[in-house]
Please model this.
Amino acid sequence: MLASRVASQAEEHAHYGGVVPELASRRHVEALPLLIEQAFAAAGVGWEEIDAVAATAAPGLVGALLVGVTTAKTLALLHHKTFLGVHHLEGHLCSAQLENPLPPGPFLVLLVSGGHTMLVRVDGPGRYRQLASSVDDAAGEAFDKVARLLGLGYPGGPAIQAVASRGDPQRFSFPRGRLRRPGGGFDPYGFSFSGLKTAVLRQVQALEGEGPLPLADLAASFEAVVVEVLAQRSCRCAADQGLDTLVVVGGVAANLRLRGELDRRCRDQGLRLLVAPLEYCGDNAAMIGVAACERLVAGAASGLELGVSSRLSLEHAELLYGAEAPF
Ligand code: KG4
Ligand code: ZN
Model:
């Protein structure tokens, strides 16, 4: 990697307690020209050394995706380069490679972000099988919603982590969101976080009128449950699948308690643990670049007629490089 720049809008969206899509698109339009210029300057390369231009095409907020994809296509067309529309989650997966090369597969991926909580089996480049996901809120979304209800600000993950570090994770007992199977028993890996969020809300309501809220204990107890659920189900899934490597990526992978717990469990279980470098857990362009490189060397290219989409499963990421644009 020669250069990596992130133009964060988090401070602005914090006023609204979450991402405002229209605002996000407009800020992308404003930020991109200078950002691209800065990245070129930092990398010390010119267009003659560039093979391709990539941008995230799906899934995500369509307005923001459109800005990136239109910019990338325009630059590719102008400079006669290949254009690649990248799958956002394939980008997250590739973020782990910014530190160590990923094994060829098979391995298990825990992908935890603001929009997704998934366990994915990877059997080789581009060969993905989703084994579990959240039936309601994503893990990052739960952090954001609980932070908002505790008045801790946005984004919620870092805010909860900071406050939780001073709290007692055993003080409150919150539900672990186990999913009942229609035929009886529980789904061993499925995730659900909306009940947990409601339980925190009920606890806050129960504590009202009893003086200042024990924010640190509430945050720590909430964080401990999310961490335990993610770590326990991932390790169990890896064992059941006979996989010896667990890769952990996405914004929530930056959580220090989660990193510690995974480290402990994987060591006990003899699992190899590869976690994305801290600075590349949250959304960034470097991970999209790595995913694009992987596809490019495999001969892939996206058509300039490719659009953007709010939804596209990781299992169908290769559609972005097909002869017919999927959207
Ligand atoms: O991957 P990401 O940057 O964007 C999406 O693709 O969604 O993930 C953002 C999410 C947010 O929900 C944020 O609260 C969460 O990652 N997050 C964290 C931490 N840092 C970011 N959650 C828990 N602990 C953290 N330290
Ligand atoms: Zn993301």
